[in-house]
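writing this on my phone so excuse typos. first protein, seq and then structure
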Amino acid sequence: MLFCHIDYLDENFCVRKAGYVRVKGARIEAVSETPLASEEGEEVYDGRGRLLMPALVNAHAHAPMTLLRGWGENLNLQDWLNQRIFPFEAKLTDEAICAGTTLALAEMIRTGTVSSTEMYFGAEAMARALVASGAKMNLSVGVTCFGDGDLADQPRQQEAERLIKNWNGAGEGRLVADLSLHAEYTSTPKAVRQMAQRAAGTGLNMQVHMAETKTETDECVERHGKTPARYFYDLGLFDAHTTAAHGVWLTDEDIPLLKEKDVTIASCPASNMKLASGFCRTPALLAAGVRVALGTDGAASNNNLDMFEEMKLFALAPKGAFGDPRAVSAQQALRAATLSGAQAQGRWDTGAVKAGNRADLIVLDCSAPWWTPGHDRAADIVYAAKGTDVCLTMADGRVLYRDGEYLTIDIERARHDAAAAAAAIAAQF
């Protein structure tokens, strides 16, 4: 496909006018500000009035939680988990998890996200949904471990090993299996050490929840005399390529540890505000050179998976929270939602409109009123655009959604199956 006369977001996250981008196979073959001649049999896409940019990467999501959208409202994290979420999740079947994942993928594809970083259970059901959709995913099982047991004996770790054995690299590499420790408060130091050793022996990526709430952080200090970041650092968890979700309650001493180990913080501003957890110290992290990516968290605490909405909050929340209009720029927000998320996943050949990169791309229709007059297109993308402005979504050069039509998902069946699964569980309460 040859995109012609199309504005595009370059690799420095600045908008270029009326360029030409050729996609051949799974990759971007050429990016040019001067015309490229079409080749025989090549589709020519007229990009006038539209904008091409890297597809978005959701760096922390729990896809099956679409089934819990609206199920736990107006609660803090611990009450939300214990009173509403855990009881519902205890009743999830593989069929329900597959349905919830398919619905989440449809929502993400429709709003420009082609890759997500997932921590959940029922992972093989999620994997089936992912491969069928044509999208990408870094998928892990969030392992919990209490008492003095060995990591290898935990049911969730055994599930994780099956996922790694059966699904890592599935869908022509679109599915990547990660390791995952749920959190400090749901594990033991022994389990953390063993997880670190497992990661060292496999080279797999690591996912973990960290410093999401003040209570979590304070109780970790009471238990171990250390913040969650120092605790994981000392036990070797960060020796793996790690994405740590939330990072709301980080200290000044924590930040250099994250930089040293190249840990990515997956900021989830909507979820953190909705559950009254606080505000990620994004400006301090960025100033220290820590990679910050962007996630929605699950639809039970957001309540949607629209990364354009999340990008706006990512840029706005620190300005209000820290009293600085320069706290996060539009370019920093765009990088967090694209390239930083891809790098956090270990996908080093995507996340920017650049020749040689994988063709994970989206096209935005810029004809709506909120795109006019267009003084600053990067600011328009972050502050004015909506997920529904996406008119084409492409992963590895394959179009997954175009002009109102899903090409890999039966959207009516996806909505029906998810609604039926959610209703069947809700009826048990």
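second protein below, same order as before
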Amino acid sequence: MRAAIHQPHYFPWLGYFDKMAKADLFVFMDEVQLEDRSYMLRNRFLRKDGELMYLSITASKKGYREKKYNEIQTIDNAHWQRKHLAYLRDLYSGSPFRDEILEHIMPVFTKNYQFLFDAARDSIFLCMDLLDIHTETITQSSVNWRRNCGDEKNADARRSNDVLAICQAVGATAYMTGAGASLRFLNAEQFAESNIPVIVQSYQCPRYPQMFSKEFIPNISALDLLFNCGIEESRRIFWENVKKGCEFDGIEG
């Protein structure tokens, strides 16, 4: 059973969903600390001039370093929800798929959230449905895991130990990681000794027709693909790309 573990992001990029689609189980890290300038509460979108901008959930930063991610509260929901909805409605006004996508993701802009985690997770679930992803998801807080003994003063070692302990607790036979920052702290030898090999995600952003940009801008929110291409075509593009990235050890195409 291939497991993947990641913090929740707000309307994540396609690479996030690619990793999710290639895993059998996806664990949301909801007990970690909120990181500064993190995708855990925002994501990148295009403007009409082709430049990038962020849409961010407004969250309380009071004492956030002493809180778990699932304890961080949202504030002024009506303001950020109205702002995000108006932005997307205007930005993609020329898209024939705008209304069907907006209707599907509307719950994120209408629910009265108390916690940041719930808003971010809802944005992920809605995109999973739009992209036809059926991977099982659970939360870190629902897993009965115990931190492995190790060098508690070394942040990277502690993070690697935590990921390994969660993999062991859920019965993973392999762990899928992205090719980014996690490779820096993961102790692959320790995973191998525990009979949980590390699989590195193979991913390249698929190209698709994109409004407002002379050159294709990759790795922004997955909503851009959906608004530009609609549900059916987005699923085709997404899953063809997933299959292309399954040609490496431990993954079958």
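The first helix runs from residue 14 to 21. thats all i got for now
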